[in-house]
């Protein structure tokens, strides 16, 4: 068997060395293209069209050990995408949601599906539903899954006598976006003055509305979801997020903490809690029509009742939460995770 040894770094993994097999391995006769997309460096670009970025060279080194043809493709124009379609690869490995080509917006996974090319994550409609936290919560409520009370507030539409339909404290974050962007020590709001200030700050920095929801005081969990390539059944991979208290004595998973990687993930050892989290996560993933992989965030209230927080149907594939959930629950390494995801992409299109 060929093994790739990986060394963990702050942002993910790097190739440490490789072992040359004594016996030639028979590779699977499949062609895979890994998309490399130019990323905006402008501070207000936000790269909303990208669900996650990957280390293309590392992914290629992993996949080339098993598959006959693996290449890295840069997409800069509609012509590049059309050429990819003409090549007809068996699978496109990409964290791109959509492309904006002049006035044409193309959702990648739907475009690939229309051309009978397999991909690794969810459809355009479902990615749009997941990325808007209010829409996602509405879908969750209709599925009779518990989530905190919430409403959407636009900074430029707030009346002077604005009042919430829920008591303080509340939690305020951007309506759109992931990775805890816009979440900081001011996200837990205790009065109207703080509320208006935080909503205006989000509008200024992220150019979007805010979602205001009941503040949940309990522990936070994240649950990785991976579909079984044989049956299509969901496998839930819960982990507890250990968060240090901030200056206000609150445990808030904010953007700074995620960026600096100071939080810790541990395995959920209590079987009853494990099953409760797994059940909620699988029902949430199904309600949101997720495909292949995803991540569901859950938080307890003061009465230890779990609440859906948000979903990520394109979880990061470096060394982040999704990998750590896989590692803790399935005891697999990074290489094995990537190979499972690719096998999912190749197989699930047939289920």
Task: Give an account of the 3D structure.
The protein folds into three domains: 117 residues, Rossmann fold; 152 residues, D-amino Acid Aminotransferase, Chain A, domain 1 (2-Layer Sandwich); 65 residues. The strands form five sheets. It has a five-stranded antiparallel β-sheet. It has 351 residues and is an alpha+beta fold. Strand 12 and strand 13 form a beta hairpin. It has ten helices and 16 strands. The chain is globular. About 2% of the residues have low confidence. Helices cover 30% and strands 26% of the residues.
Largest sheet: 5 strands, antiparallel
Please tally the helical runs, counting DSSP H or I stretches of 4 or more residues: 10
- What percent strand? 25-35%
Order of helices and strands: EEEHEHEEEHHHEEEHEEEHEHEEHH
Give Rg in angstroms: 21 Å
Helix content: 25-40%
Low-pLDDT runs of 5+ residues are: 17-23
**In the CATH scheme, what's the topology name of the largest domain?**
D-amino Acid Aminotransferase, Chain A, domain 1
CATH H-level superfamily of the largest domain: ATP-grasp fold, B domain
Summarize the structure.
β1 and β2 form a beta hairpin. The protein is built from 10 helices and 16 strands.
Protein topology:
Layout (H helix, E strand, L loop, with lengths): L3 E5 L4 E6 L9 E9 L19 H8 L3 E8 L3 H10 L3 E3 L4 E4 L2 E4 H7 L9 H8 L1 H10 L7 E4 L16 E5 L13 E2 L2 H15 L3 E5 L5 E8 L6 E9 L12 H6 L3 E4 L3 H17 L5 E8 L5 E7 L8 H10 L3 H15 L3
Parallel strand pairs: 3-4, 3-5
Antiparallel strand pairs: 1-2, 6-7, 8-11, 9-10, 9-11, 12-13, 12-15, 13-14, 15-16
């Amino acid at each position: 068997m060929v093994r790739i040894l990986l060394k963990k770094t702050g942002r993910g993994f790097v190739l440490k060395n490789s072992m040359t097999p004594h016996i030639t391995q028979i590779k699977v006769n499949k062609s895979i293209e890994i998309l490399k997309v130019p990323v905006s460096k402008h501070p207000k670009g936000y790269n909303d069209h990208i669900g996650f970025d990957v280390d293309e060279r590392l992914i290629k080194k992993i996949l080339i050990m098993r598959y006959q043809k693996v290449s890295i493709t840069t997409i800069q124009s509609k012509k590049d995408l059309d050429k990819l379609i003409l090549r007809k690869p068996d699978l496109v490995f990409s964290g791109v949601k959509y492309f904006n080509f002049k006035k044409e917006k193309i959702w990648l996974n739907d475009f690939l599906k229309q051309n009978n090319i397999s991909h690794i994550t969810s459809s355009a409609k479902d990615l749009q539903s997941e990325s808007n936290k209010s829409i996602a919560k509405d879908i969750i409520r209709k599925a009779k899954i518990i989530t905190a009370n919430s409403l959407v507030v636009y900074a430029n539409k707030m009346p002077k006598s604005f009042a919430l339909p829920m008591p303080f404290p509340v939690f305020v974050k951007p309506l759109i976006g992931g990775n805890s962007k816009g979440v900081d020590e001011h996200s837990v709001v205790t009065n109207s003055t703080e509320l208006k200030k935080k909503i205006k700050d989000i509008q200024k920095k992220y150019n979007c509305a805010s979602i205001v929801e009941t503040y949940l005081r309990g522990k936070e969990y994240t649950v990785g979801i991976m579909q079984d390539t044989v049956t299509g059944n969901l496998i839930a991979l819960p982990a507890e997020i250990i968060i240090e208290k901030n200056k206000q004595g609150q445990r808030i998973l904010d953007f700074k903490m995620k960026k600096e990687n100071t939080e810790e993930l541990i395995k959920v050892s209590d079987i009853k809690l494990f099953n409760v989290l797994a059940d909620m996560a699988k029902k949430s993933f199904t309600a949101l029509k997720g495909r292949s992989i995803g991540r569901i965030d859950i938080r307890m209230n003061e009465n230890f009742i779990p609440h859906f927080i948000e979903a990520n149907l394109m979880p990061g594939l470096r060394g982040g939460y999704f990998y750590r959930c896989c590692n803790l629950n399935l005891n697999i390494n990074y290489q094995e995770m990537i190979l499972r995801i690719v096998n999912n992409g190749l197989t699930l299109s047939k289920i």
